[in-house]
Amino acid sequence: CVLLDVQAACQDATVAQELLKEGFHRDLLVKVELGALGEDVGGCAVAARTRLPPGIYVDPYELASLQQHNLTKAMLIPDVIDVEAPEYLATDLLVLLHMEPDPRCSRCFRAALPVHGRYHRPAEESEDVLVVLKSPEVLICCCDNRLSAECWKPAEVEAPCSGKNVGPCRWYSVTHKPAYEESILHIPVGLRQHSSLVCVVTLLATVLCSSLVLAAVCKYGHFS
């Protein structure tokens, strides 16, 4: 009976993620509610660790700008990202997203992160592809609190703790129940049967624009 009570208390933590906006440029909103576990995490740092598939990425330059203005805090692994690479040449991206307390809920935390869809290969029939985001892992880092060993397990995270105290800290992972096991991102793609038309239109547009540039250079250019 005691074991069942401990498991119920551990599973009281919930995590949910939501993709805002439409198209290629979205915001990933992550919300965590610790429930009864929230009573033991005062002064601790809470983060969500999520793995982004190759079809979606975070722009490191955009992230650096947001962090400079204290609008978000996240760590990317790897930190060097080719933002121009298509989906079939990209790799997974691990994100450690630091969360802020939700003023409307004493045991709740939330954070948002801009994410972007990559270009995919043209499809045969469907005009969009599905990119699946798995539920993130909830992590906590405390320098001066003792966490329940039944609920919190040591996690391998090579990242500093953003808590109030400065000193050696360790990240822990909590067993939780996701509100949704996964989120689905719809990314528009081209159709293979339109390839010839796209090539012809692109070629004509290139020739037309090059002709206009050349005509302007010949008319207004100064040649020595």
UniProtKB/TrEMBL annotation:
Q: Would you tell me the Gene Ontology cellular component terms?
A: endoplasmic reticulum membrane
**Entry's transmembrane regions:** 195-218
What's its membrane topology? Single-pass membrane protein
Q: Does the keyword Glycoprotein apply?
A: yes
Biological role: Stabilizing subunit of the glycosylphosphatidylinositol-mannosyltransferase I complex which catalyzes the transfer of the first mannose, via an alpha-1,4 bond from a dolichol-phosphate-mannose (Dol-P-Man) to the glucosaminyl acyl phosphatidylinositol (GlcN-(acyl)PI) intermediate to generate alpha-D-Man-(1->4)-alpha-D-GlcN-(1->6)-(1-radyl,2-acyl-sn-glycero-3-phospho)-2-acyl-inositol and participates in the sixth step of the glycosylphosphatidylinositol-anchor biosynthesis. Probably acts by stabilizing the mannosyltransferase PIGM.
What PANTHER family is this protein classified in? PHOSPHATIDYLINOSITOL-GLYCAN BIOSYNTHESIS CLASS X PROTEIN
What name does this protein carry?
A: Phosphatidylinositol-glycan biosynthesis class X protein
Organism expressing this protein natively: Nipponia nippon
